[in-house]
Design goal:
The chain has 4 domains: 212 residues, 6 Propeller (Neuraminidase), CATH 2.120.10; 92 residues, no CATH class; 138 residues, no CATH class; 125 residues, no CATH class. It contains 4 helices and 51 strands. By secondary structure, it is mostly beta strands. The strands form 14 sheets. Strands 12-13-14-15-16-17-18 form a 7-stranded antiparallel sheet. Strands 4-5-6-7 form a 4-stranded antiparallel sheet, with no helix packed on it.
């Protein structure tokens, strides 16, 4: 199993809403990245069928935009089309998404802009260069700074970046429109060239609507602004109100503007939620209501709960404890959730909401479970059984929507991890397989599933504590840790001979002969090895040759832990990292009893559990 670079916080990888080019993508792409195999190469699969469309042959891939996707080949970035053909040769250090026919690229420490032919239309000269319209770029002066972990760099633009950096407007042909002086918030994604901007750093404004020609479409006046959604963008302004005392109180009043920035919903609400399908969400005194695009409260009333997940002009509301619907005219109608498909799989299995319960049907709309379930899966995993509940008992439905055991009979369950699920009967826990058969009869006080050690579960019992396999085999945590240290993707394994390390395939074939004092599993198409002749860690390709791209580095570790650093083994950074990694590998091989240490902030030491 491949051991990815570890991080204790995942926010660095959750910033999917990036530059305006990302905002333009209103529907999910049909092709999605997929990485795997012994060399951990990447390609694309069909989102619906999961069938391979572009085989795994690239070191890194980014999402498609405007028919092109950035890929890394032998350490350099270029672009492929939806057939997998390289259409822009890899010659960049990093690339962004295409938007309005242009993409940001990094060369050295500066970014510029290329067109669809791969030709530079703005030479690399900025810290950031974000396509804004078909001929205008949002730019930040200075040098590009890496904010992601090495190997996970992206040319993206988060909302935090917009408010932190000073941006200017640069025309691709004529140069400066406005020098960097603005802090920004996204407005629209249609390439018309409008963006919220403030000349004051932070997120308190005042914000106005800035046009691509550098002029104010709407003068700065709002202290809170949001993106355009369903032709409305929410705005707010804090105003002082008289309280009859010396010190006036402050209130934030909410409204909305149209795509041109005109205030079409007056600043009169205590809170507004974004528009969807013609409805906006409004709050008053802890209750919620629905407003139309002019800001009128639909039906003139507020509700305890409101759910906007239904098309055709219907919204689900709770009236006197009962779920009903409300249409555009404000009329209360039947619950729009009735019959709604809440989860489905590509082969046609669906879960529907029916009379407050859950109905499971196949592709022909025939029930696969003869009765309605009290609880059903809100998201079918489709490749393994899903927990369901009926008359106070738990069970599972399989990938075909059928119960593993009819009726459900377990007191409690955990979701399946791999090929096994954990169930409770009479206060004791056991393990079942995908056919619903026990591989371990209920006999322990508690079992905790874990994806870290596939096929094994942590047992917490009154008289024992250990890890147990699906069929009852017992393993110590140290044994499992050792196996994980040396395990690589595609069932490959780190191997040693005469004090040197290499990599072997699942069949035992040596992919990289043991020739290095330390080496790591393949990740993104290369294995990082300690090359003593260069006194650096360098990438080794699938053919076993040492490469120059990505660039060799003085230190490298098998994982990264936030707020911690590996313990020092030498005053020389290269030597220290080699010795630390060797200790890690020697533990995996059973030749050392303890793992090397990580030192947290404040000097606190901790043991890393692989």
């Amino acid at each position: 199993m491949w051991r990815p670079v570890w991080v204790a916080t995942l926010w660095l990888f959750a910033c999917l809403m990036g530059s305006p080019s990302v905002q333009a993508q209103t529907t999910l792409p049909p092709l999605v990245p997929h990485c795997g195999g012994m060399f951990h190469l990447c390609g694309f699969v069909d989102r619906q069928t999961k069938n391979v469309v572009i085989p795994n042959r690239f070191e890194r891939v980014f999402q498609f935009s405007e028919g092109l996707a950035g890929v890394r080949i032998e350490g350099r970035y270029g672009f492929i089309d939806e057939q997998g053909t390289v259409v822009i040769q890899p010659r960049f250090d990093l690339v962004g998404r295409f938007y309005q026919g242009h993409a940001e690229v990094l060369i050295g420490t500066k970014t510029g802009i290329i067109d669809r032919r791969g030709e530079l239309v703005v030479r690399p000269q900025f810290s950031r260069s974000i396509p804004f319209t078909s001929d205008t770029v949002l730019v930040v002066e200075g040098e590009w700074r890496r904010v992601h972990y090495e190997g996970f760099e992206k040319l993206e633009l988060t909302d935090r970046d917009l408010l932190r950096e000073r941006f200017g407007l640069y025309h691709m042909r004529t140069g400066w429109v406005r020098k960097p002086q603005f802090y920004l918030e996204h407005f629209e994604a249609e390439g018309r060239g409008l963006i919220w901007a403030s000349e004051v750093k932070g997120n308190k404004g005042p914000f106005g609507l800035l046009a691509a020609d550098g002029r104010w479409k709407v003068e700065p006046q709002f202290d809170h602004v949001q993106r355009l959604s369903d032709e409305r963008a929410i705005v707010a302004k804090t105003v002082e109100i008289s309280t009859g005392t010396t010190w006036p109180a402050k209130e934030r009043h909410w409204g909305a503007v149209d795509p041109e920035g005109t205030l079409v919903v007056p600043l009169k609400f205590e809170w507004l939620g974004s528009w969807r399908d013609g409805f906006g969400l409004v709050r008053k005194g802890g209750r919620k209501g629905i407003v139309d695009k002019a800001g009128n409260v639909v039906g003139g009333r507020f509700f305890d709960r409101v759910v906007r997940e239904f098309p055709e002009g219907l919204v689900r509301v709770q009236v006197d404890g009962m779920w009903r619907g409300i249409d555009r005219s404000g009329r209360i109608v039947a619950d729009p959730a009735e019959g709604k498909v809440i989860s489905s799989c590509s082969d046609g299995v669906k879960v529907r909401y029916r009379s407050g319960k859950y109905e499971v049907v196949d592709a022909s709309d025939r029930r696969t479970v003869p009765y309605l379930l009290d609880r059903g899966p809100h998201r079918l995993p489709c490749d393994r059984p899903s927990p369901v509940k009926y008359k106070g008992k738990w069970g599972y439905i399989d990938a075909e929507g059928r119960l593993l055991a009819d009726p459900p009979s377990f007191d409690n369950v955990h979701g399946f991890v791999g090929e096994h699920g954990v169930v409770q009967i009479g206060g004791k826990w056991g393990i079942i397989n995908t056919q619903g058969k026990f591989t371990l009869e209920p006999q322990v006080d508690r079992i905790i599933p874990s994806s870290r050690y596939p096929g094994f579960f942590q047992v917490i019992d009154s008289d024992r504590g250990n890890w147990i396999g699906a069929t009852g085999q017992v393993r110590s945590i140290r044994h499992l840790q050792r196996e994980r240290v040396l395990a690589c993707a595609g069932k490959a394994k780190l191997i040693s001979r005469n004090g040197r390390w290499g990599i072997a395939a699942a069949d035992g074939r040596e992919v990289i002969a043991p020739a290095y004092r330390a080496i790591n599993c393949f990740r993104q198409g290369v294995a990082w090895a300690a090359v003593d002749a260069k006194r650096k860690w360098c990438p080794v390709g699938p053919d076993g040759s040492v490469r120059n791209r990505p660039t060799c580095k003085s230190t490298y570790y098998p994982f990264t832990l936030t707020h911690s650093s590996p313990a020092s083994f030498s005053s020389d950074p290269y030597e220290s990292s080699v010795r630390w990694t060797r200790a890690y590998l020697e533990f995996g091989a059973g030749r050392l009893d303890t793992l090397p240490r990580m030192i947290g902030r404040g000097g606190r030491s901790s043991t890393i559990i692989p």
